[in-house]
Give the backbone structure.
Amino acid sequence: MNGERTIPQLSLTDVYHLLRGHHGPQKWWPADTPFEVMVGAILVQRTTWANTRRAIENLKLADTLSPGAIRDTQEEELQKLIRPSGFFRSKARKLRALCEFLGERYGDSLEAMSERPDGELREELLSIYGVGDETADDIMLYAFGRPLFVVDAYTRRIFGRLGLVDRKLKYTDIQSAFQDSIPRDVALYNEYHGLIVVHGNSTCKTRPVCSECPLDTACPKVGV
Ligand code: SF4
């Protein structure tokens, strides 16, 4: 005996159940329509959901939450509406690029877009200015119901600290680690990502609050 504590190794499924037991169902993504998911997926880049929600509320109040309305809104006005989400100049350009794509390619019909198979749909999304892997998968999962696991900064931080994922790996390698370990199920991926967001916001923050974490006794706290 060397007095060291033996830490039980959790599986990715164990983590899901512990987080769900602790935080409860999340019903993520908070949006009324697939287009609202798309807009939120762009506005949430490099900011919190609280800031994103304020920007979306502004768009709703100004009756601007549709592809046509965004295309028709003056650049400065659009920037003003989404200002709470930060990086508002580049995000206004990204929203406009998304809406121009939707208009030109699908006549603003997300139903028509949803008929694309997974691979083509993801490639199309990635071809739009401002849409990278995470934003594309937010849209794939929450707007189009495709079973792709979303990897964000919270995912890297929480699972890196748990020693279950090398946080420096490429996006697609981390995504494969999840998709190879847990069933390809839209409802499960939907809920799991919501739990990761709430846990990263409330508990496994930059300065983690491990004493309030349901994973505490099984967490090696890598890099903490
Ligand atoms: S125990 Fe601490 S470091 Fe580990 S997941 Fe929980 S909050 Fe994060």
